[in-house]
# Entry
Amino acid sequence: MPDSPETPDAMHPISSDELEKGLLYAVLSYRGELASWNWTFFVPNPSTTPIGSAGTIFHVIDNETAGEWKFETEQKDVISSPHVVAIIRLADVSFLGEYDDIVGPDSLLPMFKTVEIPTAGTVANAEFSSRTWFLEAIGVLHDCGVVQCDDGWLLEREIRRCAFTAMDKFLDNKGWTAYRSEHCI
# Structure
């Protein structure tokens, strides 16, 4: 069955111009190369409409000094961003509370901060990226019971396939495409 949830090649687009409250999303943004994206987590702020026009992103960025990564949170409008290629619904995190609770200092934030960022100049740092940080963070969220993702490799493959498919629409200046993950709930 080519489109069953057990098939790692399956993609499940969502037809919507706004996101949903209480959900955790993966957002892949264009970096200037066809197969290279910045990987971030996003929680939309439901008090601003359309939902997704405000919210908190959690990600790592490469500082001005090459190879020096740092974790950062930022308020962002992802649905209007010209760089967003794909938005993938990962999991319902509303059990953590309201928006301010979810993105606050006692919920997702300390979990993301436990993901190790290698020191500049090390072998581990040479292989580090927003993608590797994202996948490690998924493991932490799974271990903490926030998401259920039994196979990070399948999730990565699913997200990459969604982004590759979304690139056609993105490169035609038609914006981002939303999907629902089958490998993370």
